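Request: Have a read of the protein record below and say how the chain folds.
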Amino acid sequence: MLLAAASAPLTGLACTDAAEAETASTWRRFEVATEINLPPSKDAAQLWAPMIQTLGDYQSNPTFEVQGSGVARRVRDGRYHTSLLAASWLAADTGDRTLRLVQTVATRNRTLTKTDLSLAERRLWLAADYSLPTDGIVRDTARRIVALKVGPRAQARAIYDWVVDNTFRDPETRGCGLGDVKSLLESGRLGGKCADINSLMVALCRSVGLPARDVYGVRVAPSAFHKCLGVSGDITHAQHCRAEVYLEGEGWLPVDPADVRKVVLEEKLPVDSPIVKAERERLFGSWEMNWVGFNSATDIAPPDAPRKIEANFLMYPYAMVGAKDLDWLEPTTFQYRMTSREIA
């Protein structure tokens, strides 16, 4: 049986993270199920799974239920305070090592989120990380981009347009990419997937004083705009990273240059075509919420992890069996599956 931190059974338990979502017709509700079956081993095992968060005024009322064979609890990392589900199995637990996490959440399409930042929040979302440096080639590039642009919105737009114009989606990139911005710029080959392209925008913004962050999540439903921007049923490979930039006096502006490049690739369109131009405008200031967000934690240190995890972010289930880290980008060998459905 799975146990919570206070030793109360988690099996069949539903936990609420926020107030009830609004009942307006603009809200939709989704169920996201993650099923994990770790490979047999004589070694102890630990697992961390990302959890859906309450985000602004567009993602609300996440709940979860857990069943499985180990011991699990909801934990928060020390820096970002993001929720993770942590589960463990002892070496003596030689039977099935299974976990089923079912989460529900309400979402509605999102535009700018009006809010103020505290000093601590401002420092956090301007800080440099291993994968998001803000000096050297990153700062030099950003300064050239913003040049004489005046004001946060104009600077953010200049960086956004530069990222759209100078990057490309590389279908050979594993998963969502690594989000290693310095290596991307130094290579001169600005190809990758969402965690590369959107992290590039985040780092460039931070380097010139614009608070910014990635938001890691997963697509859960078809798109009303483009087939390639949606999914249905099996979402095991549907992880997607987005980005936000804080505009002083306005709030958090949602952006997604990576999805502009996805439309270019998947629909075989030139970047200056009317369809792509429309997507460029739509994705500077709005998100279609056929997607749910997990967290904005980069270079994350999960509680109780015996060593630093290899991933720069936690957008997939992550497990350690003995001295080995399972390959989170190979769900068939890791043995996990994610599904989604819209519910009334």
